[in-house]
Amino acid sequence: MSTIPPASSPGVPPAAWRDMEVNELVHRIVPSPNFGERALPITMLVVHYTEMKPMETALERLTTKEGGVSAHYLISEEGEVIQLVSEAKRAWHAGTSYWRGIKDVNSASIGIELDHPGHAGGYRAFADAQIEALVPLMARIVKNHDIPRANVVGHSDIAPMRKIDPGELFPWERIADYGLCLPCPDKFEAADPFPNEGAFILALERYGYDITEGRKAIEAFERRWRPERIEGKPDAQLGAILWHLLLERDRGGSR
Questions:
Q1: Active site residue 66
Q2: 15-36: average pLDDT
Q3: Rounded to 5 degrees, what angle do the CA atoms 48, 150, 49 make?
């Protein structure tokens, strides 16, 4: 069980402790001053990687005013769960982003940072201990806030022009096995229903992506739904996957 030190701790603004949840999944609380009030209800969960090593470097950036960023949680590769911002507050993790009509993603989401070197530092598989800590935390968040599986996304999904995290090695299918995000479709009712790249990109917009840069949006879709091959151009397989996802959404099967 986490314990909360006095709000008068040196360097910690009292507001940073306000509404901070205490639960058995959190090992440590290191409050960040970088948060605000929400303008929207919580409907999303966003997964990031830190792309910083050691983890203390990322923790310092996420918890100092000079860093200017934050997340609700940071999970070490060893499985330590650190809470930085109350779920009731708006953390600063998404930046300029968009998902399904929402432009203020920070207001509508919970952000989880995973301690990881990222693509710039030697991209590798995520540690088992880290994922084992992530899954119950995600499960609690999704249940408490009734977040649809389709709104459990990666940073690259909401900011395809700028971000590629958590990347192609993040185990989305393992997360989907627990019912916490959508699984990749494996049975298709149609193959390549989009006659050209423009039609595919417009369908990506229908699904929820920012298509300001079409190729980047395609890459983000590939990174999430076909991570073994990222080319930035649609084909029959991608078309079938997207068509199936749209059908399931329209049938109400995306929760």
A1: no
A2: 83
A3: 5
